[in-house]
Amino acid sequence: MTQHIANQKDNAAVADNLTVVQHQIATACQRGSDATPRGMTARPPQDPPTLVAVSKRQPDYRIDACLAAGQRVFGENRVQEAQQRWQHRRPEHEDLTLHLIGPLQTNKAADAVALFDVIEVVDRAKLAKILAAEMERQNRHLPCFVQVNTGEEPQKAGVMPGEADEFIHFCRQDCVLDVVGLMCIPPADEEAAMHFALLREMAKRNNLPELSMGMSLDFEEAIAFGATSLRVGSAIFGAREQHS
Predict the structure, then answer these.
(1) By CB distance 3.0 to 4.6 Å, which of 27, 68, 158, 210 could disulfide with 149?
(2) Beta-carbon-side half-sphere exposure of residue 71 (alpha carbons within 13 Å)
(3) Which residues, listed in sequence order, are joined to residue 99 by a DSSP beta bridge?
(4) Residues 98-124: what's their mean pLDDT?
(5) What is the C-alpha to C-alpha distance for residues 99 and 116, in angstroms, rounded to an integer?
(6) pLDDT score at 1
(7) According to DSSP H, which parts of the chain are helical?
(8) Backbone angles phi, psi at 22, to 5 degrees
């Protein structure tokens, strides 16, 4: 009974947090030129970025609370975990949209294409080729983002900035992937703004309309730099449970 009451309180907190984040997004969009760095273009409030609720490693009751509050776009890092969480929820929520936002192994590409609606982590030629083949085989031609390692961090996935233009061209022309935008995860110990600006310029140079950038601590700043998709986890769900 005690755990049930705790879960009910947690569910209410998730719904409240979601409302707060939605309000913060709307406010950031409405700030317009007053809060937009020089050279940037504010996103109009009538066209807000997509909020991707990062549900990785969250318990089921928090996911259900977020769904009950109306959220329908979610991001997952691992294919197998996402399969366990979302396959049985698909029939209940036909308007569900799932983004793969974590590194993808090539041997999981088929499962990823079958489950997800957006692939945000295309970062190497082998993966691009396999994804293209799987999308053709399954007749599921999903929108893709090229992940750019803007901080050139050896522990992170993503194509290096200096190789991004060539790789984007390869994905589009050689693999015929539907590359709609770019994604990045800035280094934790650096100002996110410089990385958002870099990604924005890469997207502009390659005529890509979508930018997946901004997380719980910096999504408002990302909006000022033109983010079209925000990956927000802890600000909605709270801290992840250690045993999950």
Answers:
(1) 158
(2) 31
(3) 75, 118
(4) 97
(5) 6
(6) 44
(7) 2-30, 60-68, 79-86, 109-115, 125-138, 161-169, 192-205, 219-224, 234-237
(8) -60, -40
Q: Determine the average pLDDT of the residues in 158-179.
A: 98
Q: Are 18 and 66 in contact (CB under 8 A)?
A: yes
Other Cβ atoms within 10 Å of 158 Cβ, number: 23
- Read off the DSSP letter of residue 212: E
Measured distance CA(161)–CA(147) in Å, rounded: 10
DSSP 105: -
pTM assigned to the model: 0.90
Radius of gyration of the chain (CA): 18
Q: Per residue in 49-103, pLDDT tens?
A: 999 999 988 999 999 999 999 999 999 999 999 999 999 998 999 999 999 999 9
Contact 183, 148 (CB under 8 A): yes
Q: How far is CA 80 from the centre of its chain?
A: 18
The C-alpha atoms of residue 149 and residue 188 are separated, in whole angstroms, by 13
pLDDT digits (tens, 9 = 90+) for 12-35: 899 999 999 999 999 999 875 444
Q: Is the pLDDT of residue 142 over 70?
A: yes
Q: Which two tokens stand for residue 176?
A: 């015929």
| Residue 147 and residue 123 in contact, taking contact as beta carbons nearer than 8 Å | yes
Q: Tell me, what amino acid is at 15?
A: A
**Phi, psi angle pair for 161, to nearest 5°:** -55, -40
The 8-class DSSP code of residue 159 comes to B
pLDDT at site 41: 52
Token look-up 């997800």 returns: 116
Spell out the residues 6+ positions from residue 199 whose beta carbon is closer than 8 angstroms to its own.
148, 150, 182, 183, 184, 211, 213, 225
